[in-house]
Every structure is written in structure tokens, then in C-alpha cells.
Amino acid sequence: MGVIHVTDRAGERHTLEALEGWRVMEIIRDWNLPIEGLCGGACECATCHVFVAENWLPKLHPPTEEEENQLDMVPITERNSRLACQILWAPDLDGLEVTLAPVSG
């Protein structure tokens, strides 16, 4: 077991225990932080949009075309935008840092 550090939309940092093989979206949701994940991880809604800390980006697999298409539909994106449902937590991501993206522009 490891951890993910999540900064919520109010700027508060939370350290969450993470289980291998779980989607980052599921971990955040199960710790009752305000992330929707309406599609359940099917990469169909972008309601789990997060900003990944820049130093963690090289450790993640690149976004798929499907993920990029979903991100094109959100009002505010950054170079480090990702869908949390497309990141599977593994021990090499222990300490991963993400910030919940705004829900509207």
C-alpha cells in the first residue's frame, strides 16, 4: 500500500492510502473527495479531470487519443491535465501528487 497526495479545489492537501490496480479516480472518490467519475472509469465523461504535478508526468503512460478527446471537452486544461480514471495506481506511483481541476470555466 502507498499514498496519493490530492489537493482539493479549496487548496487543502489530502494524503490518501492507495491500493495497487485501483484507478486514481476510484481512490479519490472512495476517500469522499469531490470527484465525480460519472462514467465509472470508461473514459467517457472527463468528470475526473486532474492536474498531475509536473515531476510525475514522465512516470505516467502517455494519454490515449480517447483520453485527449475527452480532455478537449473540458473548459480549462493545462499541459499536465489527465483523467484520473486513466491512471492505474501502482507502487512506482507512491507519493503521486494531483490537484482536482475546476468543474467549470
Question: Would you report the number of β strands?
Answer: 5
Class per helix and strand makeup: alpha+beta
Listing every helix as H and every strand as E from the N terminus to the C terminus, the arrangement reads: EEHEHEE
Helix content: 10-25%
The 3D shape can be described as globular
How much strand content do the residues show? 15-25%
Q: pLDDT below 50 for ≥5 consecutive residues: which ranges?
A: none
Distance between the termini: 35 Å
Average pLDDT number: 94
Count every helix, treating DSSP H or I runs of 4 or more residues as helices: 2
The biggest sheet amounts to: 5 strands, mixed
Q: Over all CA atoms, what is the radius of gyration?
A: 12 Å
Physical arrangement of strands within the biggest beta sheet: 2-1-5-3-4
Task: Please provide a written account of the structure.
This protein is α+β, with helices and mostly antiparallel strands and 105 residues long. Helix content is 13%, strand content 23%. The protein is built from two helices and five strands; from the N terminus they run E-E-H-E-H-E-E. It has a five-stranded mixed β-sheet with strand order 2-1-5-3-4. Strand 1 and strand 2 form a beta hairpin. The longest helix has 7 residues. It is globular. The mean pLDDT is 94.
